[in-house]
Amino acid sequence: TPVSSKITWNLGARTSYLNAAELNSFDLTQPQSDFYRNNFRSLSRSERIKTNPFFNFRDLNSKITYASGNGLKIDLNFFGSYDQLKNNYDIKYSSRINREDAISTEIFRNSENWENLGTSLNLEGILNNNWTIYSNTYFSAYSNFSDIRSMLTVDLPGKDMSSGFSNIQEGKIVSGGSIFYLVNHSEKQEFKFGIDYKYNQAAYSFGEDDKMLLNGKDHANQSSIFFEKIWAKNKNTNFIFGGRSTFYSPTGKLYLDPKFQINHHSGEYLTFKTSIHYANQFTRELNYENRLGQSANYLVMADGHKYPVGTSWQYMLGIDLNRSGWNLDVEFYRKSLDGVLEYSLQMPGIDPNQGFNKSRSYRVFSGKGKITGMDLLLSRSVKKYTGWIAYTLSKSTRQFREIRKNNPFPAENDRRHQFKWVNSYDLGNFTFSANYIFSSGKPYLALDEIPGEIDRRQLESRAFIRNLPSYQRLDLGLDYHFNLAGKKATLGVACFNITDHHNVKYLQYIYSVQADNEAGRPVNTILGTETSLLGRTPNLRFHLDF
After folding, report:
1. Distance CA 102, CA 110 (A)
2. pLDDT at site 519
3. Alpha carbon of 120 to those of 73, 82, 177: distances in Å?
4. Distance CA 121, CA 358 (A)
5. 3-state DSSP helix/strand/coil percent for the chain, to nearest 5?
6. Which site in 54, 105, 196, 510 is 20 to 30 Å from 492, CA atoms measured?
7. Residues with Cβ < 8 Å from 395, sequence gap 6 or more?
8. Which of 236, 256, 259, 260 lies closest to 248 in space, CA to CA?
């Protein structure tokens, strides 16, 4: 939106509105027949119930841009968001325990929220025909919190039994810094060099019941110098060589990150490319798997001891084809990781005598990782139509000396196939859009199949690892463009997940309960929940250019 001849201002805001009562956001859906009494057991609660959590969000973003007209451009950006999830239920179900009728009451409360705040100031200025200056100063803060509480009460003639637990986990990362660099352009080469300063502070805590498992608050400074040089051997081939040297305050050491890339143009339309890159990671991801089998990543700062500085080698080989409005980009890649971090139980599983896992055998594991795959992007752009297809075939594994006999096993983010198809078509004052997304289900540890508690060191490579159902979503949208009081305006309607496909966010394994089977013999059953992602969700938007 122009404010003056040199200043523009963009402002956007979104919010969700859900009527929980009308949308049955807290209702349990139980389509399987085994949710009720059958010939094999007398427990009227299924091993796994499906829940549709209540979810809402709101966000605000703003951008002010100043362009002088003589090569100076400054923009100021702001972004803030808040997301909240609530997943609560109270249910009663019947069973027989030791040949007596029992009524069980299960109360479950799960509350999660995420907050994000960020601002940046960017500057770009042309010094002369060959030199351009760039700078970026930024601040960001991200936090997330999860609280899970549950209580199970079993009423038997003459006595009551109860058990319960609570899980609390939270993380926060605050970052700030500034980057400044110069770029020199010439006919046959380009040279970039600059300095970069970052400050990061990470805080995290994981607790179960009345015990704090792991917590910390770390900070670090990173001071870097970097360069990149692009030169053309001839009109068909160019080389890119760059590097970064970083001083990291917690270890007091200097780290080098080199990279090298070659691009070769074969004819007018085809380009071959290959690259190699070595990188150090100072802000680390710690994968926390809680006793319910639920995994989440938290950020910690490398300290060179418990949390080592991570390293990676990345290799890429690809082609790029452009012709007649079509673009095909294919890349094959491999990434080897060292210093992968995981915080989980040495003895996962659910003790049938305790009702749920009370083990405190958590520890931090440090190991290796490997990612291999292929990315394919096919795009088409004509006057009225724009569309692209993206497909990723990949395999991601982790390997720890103290887990699964030091054999590789699927990483928590391993999704073999990922597919996205995006379409947009303009017809008069209307714009039609249709997007489809597919992703293989991510792996998880099936606690309901583990016989009690078991040592991870004794597990085979894929023992008790299963995959969630695939993620699938079809979104449709329609925008109408018109003039309002002499200003350009857009009114849009869309539907997220129009087919209402059931997508699973995660599984949680909660209790081990005892119930008599048809023969009157006691059988232990693992109870859990299956939390769903958003189903069919309508959207409305309005845009006005002042």
Report:
1. 26
2. 67
3. 14, 19, 10
4. 49
5. 5, 70, 25
6. 54
7. 371, 372, 373, 414, 416
8. 256
Nearest to 95 by CA among 450, 529, 528, 518: 518
Mean pLDDT score, 327-346: 96
C-beta of residue 137 within 8 angstroms of C-beta of residue 82: no
Residue 541 host element (H or E): strand 537-544
pLDDT higher than 90, residue 372: yes
Q: What pLDDT band is residue 89 in, cutting at 50, 70 and 90?
A: confident
Compute the distance between CA of residue 353 and CA of residue 163 in angstroms, rounded to an integer. Answer: 11
Tokens of 275: 């690259």
Q: What is the pLDDT of residues 420-455, one digit of tens each?
A: 999 999 999 999 999 999 999 999 998 888 887 888
Please state the length of the chain. 546
Q: Tell me the backbone φ, ψ of residue 405, rounded to 5 degrees.
A: 55, 30
Residue 36 has pLDDT above 60, yes or no: no
The three-class DSSP label of residue 73 is: strand
Residue 286 Cα distances to 216, 299, 390, angstroms: 12, 6, 29
Rounded to the nearest integer, the mean pLDDT of the chain is: 88
Task: Give 531 or 427, the one with higher predicted confidence.
Answer: 427
Q: What is the DSSP letter of 308?
A: P
Asked if residues 247 and 222 have their Cβ atoms less than 8 Å apart, the reply is yes
What beta strand segments (E) does 233-269 contain? Answer: 237-248, 253-266
Q: What is the dihedral of CA 329, 333, 339, 344, to 10 degrees?
A: 80
CB 340 within 8 A of CB 244: no
Higher per-residue confidence, 469 vs 232: 469
- Give the separation between CA 180 and CA 137, rounded to whole angstroms: 9
Least Cα distance to 206 among 364, 67, 375, 352 occurs for: 364
Which one is predicted more confidently, 324 or 194? 194
pLDDT in tens, 38-66: 333 344 566 777 777 888 889 999 999 99
| Residue with tokens 């997330």, as numbered in its chain | 144
Judge contact between 169 and 205, C-beta under 8 A. Answer: yes
Task: Kindly tell me if the per-residue pLDDT of 30 is higher than 80.
Answer: no
Q: How far apart are CA 198 and CA 69, in angstroms?
A: 32
Residue type, 151: M
* β-bridge partners, 137: 121, 178
User: Amino acid identity of 111?
Assistant: S
Distance CA(528)–CA(46), nearest Å, equals: 9
**In sequence order, what DSSP letters do the residues of 458-504 get, joined into one string?**
G--TTTTEEEPPPEEEEEEEEEEEEEETTEEEEEEEEEETTT----E
Instruction: Annotate 106-174 with DSSP letters as a single string.
Output: EEEEEEEEEEEEEEEEEEEEE-SSSEEEEEEEEEEEEEEEEEEEEEEEEEETTEEEEEEEEEEEEEEEE
Q: With CA atoms as reference, report the closest residue to 361 among 213, 494, 504.
A: 213
Q: Is the pLDDT of residue 337 over 60?
A: yes
Q: What is the pLDDT of residue 72?
A: 93
Question: pTM for this structure?
Answer: 0.86
Residue 468 has pLDDT above 70, yes or no: yes
